[in-house]
Amino acid sequence: MSELDLYKFVTGHNIEYHWIDDDVILFVPVSLCDQWIELLGHQVMDEEGIECIMKYKYFCFHMKEICDYFGIWELKNVFEEDTK
Q: How are beta strands 53-55 and 58-62 bridged, if at all?
């Protein structure tokens, strides 16, 4: 996944997110889980998988660790600091 791929996914689907200190919490609707998994790729799901919090109709992901895995070092390039 590239920085641009993630940006297009988030903005194209108008996905809600919030900044918490130096991390972003991304709220992926259940209806987009297949596309989210495809974006991340199967290798991310191998071994330990990805930690998330399951809520009613969406999953919450801490994006700093996921972005670090993909070499996306500047969260501000993907997520605007003004939260949605």
A: antiparallel
Name the CA dihedral angle for 40, 18, 13, 60, rounded to a multiple of 10 degrees: 50
Phi, psi of 80, deg, nearest 5: -65, 145
Structural domain boundaries of the chain?
Answer: 3-74
54-83 pLDDT tens trace: 999 999 999 999 999 999 999 999 999 864
> Higher pLDDT residue, 84 or 40?
40
For 10, counting Cβ atoms within 10 Å of its Cβ (0-12 exposed, 13-18 middle, 19+ buried), the class is buried
Could you tell me the two tokens for 61?
A: 């992901």
Work out the end-to-end distance of the chain between its first and last CA atoms, rounded to an integer number of angstroms: 23
